[in-house]
Write a structure and sequence with these properties.
The chain has helices at about 5-15, 60-70, 140-150, 155-175, 225-230, 250-260, 280-290, 305-320, 335-345, 355-365, and strands spanning about 20-25, 40, 55-60, 75, 80, 85-90, 90-105, 110-115, 130-135, 180-190, 195, 200-205, 235, 240-245, 265-270, 295-300, 325-335, 350. The protein is α+β, with helices and mostly antiparallel strands and about 375 residues long.
Length: about 375
Amino acid sequence: MNLLEVEGKRLFFDYGIPIPMGRLSHGDAPSDFVRYPAVVKAQVPTGGRGKAGGIRIVSDVTELGRAVREIIGTSIKGHKVWEVLIEEKIESRKELYVSITVDRAKRAPVIMASAMGGMDIEGVPEEKVFKDWIDPWVGVQPFVAKDMAYALEMEPEIAGQFLAVLQGMWRLFQDIDAELVEINPLAVTGDNRLIAVDSKVVIDDDALFRHEGFKKLSGDITPLERKARDMGIAFVQLDGDIGVIANGAGLTMATLDFLSMHGGKGGVFLDLGGTDDPEKVKEALLLMAEAKPKVVLINIFGGITKCDTVASGLLQAFKDGGLDLPIVARIRGVNEKEAVEMLKGTRIQPVLSLDDAARVAVKIAVGSG
């Protein structure tokens, strides 16, 4: 789960990491915001906001109001902007990069730091990125920060603050089961303060059951994905126009591959898992319909999941939801003959081969476009 910048900065504040003075706005331009110049930042879970017009520098309340009105309601890389963060503009004499993430090769957390902050870490030469692996039982010790401060050529008055920032990041990383805690840039101001100008915090989805509060945050999921999560359904929205319902992650990915092979693009995919409940199947299809795909391809292998119960759920969804949605269904496995018989004469078109089913779904999507 990727947190928005403002959500990450609230956590930074709680863990003693300095952040700029700011406030969140959903459309109002606060007249009492007095620290100018200020920065207005679109709150969307993606990078490249500046190039997309999602970050503006303003010098007074008039410019602030105009920027807020112009940014809210726009879309940045497919994400609608519902809110903006208004912050004081930090004048820095130096920008650093620092993060804590997981090095899966070494099976340990790793601190990465660079004096070349403000740019993507992937674009920084490897010799300019300093790394130190953390023993989880020991944590971030003062000598680690001292070594990194020396490598980054920090002045002594900055090095002490850097240790506090690193230790705050480490506590946060542990406490919320994070996959990444990143500050880029970490600004060094003219009066020798360290301030986190931006934040990127990623939480392990599999650990969210331990952190109920985060489920209420915006993160990087759409309203439909949030609704699906609350219903206990694995649901992901992409930017294509063909909906996919399958059971099992592998079968779902294979279905998306077959669509791509025939020139189509999955728009929403939904994993039924091993459910054998017609009511759950009905809920899944009604949720899929809310995304408004041009066609839905259903690919079910009936093992734990019986084909006839899936067919029953599909028919119930049409009956209860008044659906007007073309559906191609490839349902194979336990009780497949019964399922095919149940679907005959309905708006659901049964197809035995996945290759044929993908071809038919793409043809329908292209024809309705």
